[in-house]
Amino acid sequence: MNKYTDATEEEINNTMQSAWDAFNIYRKYSLKQRADFMRAIAAEMEAIRDKVIPVAMQETHLPEPRLQNEFARTIFQLNSYAAYCEQGAWLEARIDTALPDRNPPKPDIRKTLVPLGPVIVFGASNFPFAYSTAGGDTACAFAAGCPVIVKAHPAHAETSEMVAAAIDKAVQKSNLPKGVFAHIHGAGFETGKMLVMHPYTKAVGFTGSYAGGKALFDMANQRKEPIPVFAEMGSINPVYLLPEKLQQSAAEIARQYAASVTLSVGQFCTNPGLIVGIDGDGLQQFITALGNEIRNIAPSPMLHPGIAKAFAVNRTKALTQKDVDTIAVAAASAKENDGIPTIASATATAFLNNPVLHQEVFGPYSIVIRCKDAVEMSSVIQHIEGQLTSTVIGTDSDIQLHKALIEDIQLTCGRLIFNGVPTGVEVCLSMQHGGPFPATTDSRFTSVGADGIKRFARPVSYQNCPDIFLPEELKNKNSLGIWRTVNNELTRNRVAG
Amino acid sequence: MNKYTDATEEEINNTMQSAWDAFNIYRKYSLKQRADFMRAIAAEMEAIRDKVIPVAMQETHLPEPRLQNEFARTIFQLNSYAAYCEQGAWLEARIDTALPDRNPPKPDIRKTLVPLGPVIVFGASNFPFAYSTAGGDTACAFAAGCPVIVKAHPAHAETSEMVAAAIDKAVQKSNLPKGVFAHIHGAGFETGKMLVMHPYTKAVGFTGSYAGGKALFDMANQRKEPIPVFAEMGSINPVYLLPEKLQQSAAEIARQYAASVTLSVGQFCTNPGLIVGIDGDGLQQFITALGNEIRNIAPSPMLHPGIAKAFAVNRTKALTQKDVDTIAVAAASAKENDGIPTIASATATAFLNNPVLHQEVFGPYSIVIRCKDAVEMSSVIQHIEGQLTSTVIGTDSDIQLHKALIEDIQLTCGRLIFNGVPTGVEVCLSMQHGGPFPATTDSRFTSVGADGIKRFARPVSYQNCPDIFLPEELKNKNSLGIWRTVNNELTRNRVAG
């Protein structure tokens, strides 16, 4: 499936040495230089758009409009993170000026963020552009001042290779050391392991399965020097249907959710895999309508045979659990490697007693959990693992009535959506894409939006540092015009002295 | 040494259940309510000052002025973190308003920080007040909205008990649920392990040895749900002496460093345990002067017999390494459990070839490393493990001349000090107390200064959230008057709509 050979240990050692050497140059680059480099990558990407999209279509079986959108999003990420990088507020510059007359004298202390070092990025199978080679993790690491080593996803190795060549061009045109970016192939587990364990590796970005992300997390913590792993793993993205709203618009919500469950053959990390409602006419109408919608949605090819096989196995496993009813299956016949749209249902009691029903079935599948009442729904919420998103469907009066319940839902997720669908992750500063474990390995950071830059940096304080050595953003004159906290006040003013 | 009995598993389970119940109330408290609670603790602390300081003197052998200072610092931390908590900028509120006419429509998204959950704080032996029961970690967790469970340090259990009683009073007077704070005794390893492994525990704060911190970190990562551990562990805080400055002021620097090495019997995490200079007259004068100073400083009792014994063992181990010269030892005779001020010296070659010389000798000990030239100093820097602080002693022209070298030093530490001593950690927003591993387990956060609050919180996004459910800091009207980033612009204005 992959014409590229796995990197050898020697190649990886050479790659990491080059990355480290490049780090010692790139980390001193100004914010503007980093932003220019990121914009250069965006420009080189634009230049390959027409050539790379057909290759990605072939490798991933995703349709052209979906890939065109994702490609545009990738360019937007590079450009918007570049703008945010340059603007400098993310450095959280803090300055406390000296008080020489205090007893004891207070020194001058100034703090900014510095890059961690070379970052390994694992390409995601379901986002060949936006969360792969030149995707969000890569853009964030470059903005932070870190070299990037991409481990290509074997299911779209050719797409990855073409994007890597575009980045290489941008590296050359920006007169950056070659080692600032590297692209490594490796179909097996060993390549990733060697990269994560290398002493010059200082952080890891990953989007994929729980098993994969957790293995990287464990490895990284067993290093002599543990390093942070930002793994975005599985999520079933629960949707909670509140009674009044369901009574009003069961059919409309069903239509919306049939589309969301099957969007891109259900291959989004924010796919709604679990729908929780309170028994009654409204829920019954919703289930019937959702079933009717799903029957009319055709099976479609999944990303690669491995994912299709896993979907088939996990779907069968879920449907054959005790007290699980199959509500609807796509009526049209399916080809090999197709994902078959499917809706199941079970009682809250069954859900609470069976951990299998909490597991993600990656693909166009969702299970509707029927609760006797709000108390039972609350019980379900208490037993939900960490999630990327949770969604509440309710009228204002539903929300007012179930405030405590929604406050408990919020404990379990990184993003709380009202009256919408979880699929569709807006790239903006207010986005949190990262939830409590096991949704991600570090809920304190996001992998979407420019705040993701902070994953790859750490604070350093400079005490009584002469002006000649201070980083530009901490010098008195504030030539970058950035927001800084000076003696506890946020300001863009220069510091007197 | 400890009249208190270790908590049983049942007591710990009950404590954690109470903490969880309290969390579900306390996490909804407003910033002002949290700040008022912290100020109430400060007031109760003031009330016990005269009673608790003599007890701490007896338990820790630290002199009264040192403990009075530390007590004042503890009160200052509570009050200043309360003020910062209330002011709200730390929530990093971000608002992106909806664009309903965009295709597809852009939803309204707003992000703030929410508390992680119950936090275990391990008291530090060397800071019975400022990094123990009502210390920095406790203050940060309360500000973030988290309940705190303190594991008392057995070496000052009585002091800890008295401070815990003061916090309990503040809990009562603030009408908070009892479970918001708990105080647990446990001389053995098992108590700490049970606390860290409990499913309701969501984060850990620790200040102490590498062995202790690393054990907690490993445990926390092996949980079913891994949790963050902020362990501030050992550090040798290297000091780099540059030639011109040394030539000018060897004697003065020696005086300053003799005091810093022996301050509080060398029992600070920022104690300068390694001094690196370039061979020549200046360095020779410095070593001679430092030796003379050290001989005149009297041995003093260490915190507890365990620490005194470890110092004796590690000091002997260091002094008996190949090619290590003992430069000076305090002339006055020492009593049992005294720390004996000691200076050793070795060549850079010896240092580079012997990892034992990189290890912390916790107490009044420092080793001077003699480099042939700046190239050899650079080699030493390449082999330095992560540090809380590094210090550069140099004239402006020294700094200009050795800019690349200092940029490499900065890679290895959380705080870079110029022409000062590392002891003395200012409590202010610009302080970074946390360096690359093994100085701390997470270099991206600080344990000193109000930014430490962020250790115990995570971001949550609210998408299309009705006003009735939005947290106060995200509502259009901005009733708290806090700085927020609205559509990529930092502002205190209300949001239109």
Give a description of the structure.
The structure is a homodimer of 497-residue chains. The first copy, chain A, is of the alpha/beta class and 497 residues long. Chain A has a 7-stranded mixed beta sheet with strand order 11-13-14-9-8-15-16, with helices on both faces. The first copy, chain A, has a 5-stranded mixed beta sheet with strand order 17-2-1-18-19, with no helix packed on it. Chain A contains 14 helices and 19 strands. The model of chain A has no long low-confidence stretch (mean pLDDT 96). Chain A folds into 2 domains: 240 residues, Aldehyde Dehydrogenase, Chain A, domain 1, CATH 3.40.605; 180 residues, 3-Layer(aba) Sandwich (Aldehyde Dehydrogenase, Chain A, domain 2). Chains A and B meet through strand 1, strand 2, helix 7, helix 13 and helix 14 of A and strand 1, strand 2, helix 7, helix 13 and helix 14 of B. Strand 17 of chain A pairs parallel with strand 16 of chain B, so a sheet runs across the interface.
Topology readout:
Two copies of one chain form a homodimer.
Chain A: H1 9-26, H2 31-60, H3 64-87, E1 94-96, E2 109-115, E3 119-122, H4 136-144, E4 148-151, H5 157-173, E5 181-184, H6 189-197, E6 203-207, H7 210-222, E7 229-232, E8 239-241, H8 243-262, E9 274-278, H9 281-295, E10 300-301, H10 305-319, E11 325-329, E12 338-339, E13 342-347, H11 348-353, E14 365-371, H12 374-382, E15 387-393, H13 396-401, H14 403-410, E16 413-418, E17 457-463, E18 484-486, E19 489-491
Parallel strand pairs in A: 1-18, 3-4, 3-6, 4-5, 6-7, 8-9, 8-15, 9-14, 13-14, 15-16
Antiparallel strand pairs in A: 1-2, 2-17, 10-12, 11-13, 18-19
Helix pairs in contact in A: 2-3, 2-4, 2-5, 3-4, 8-9
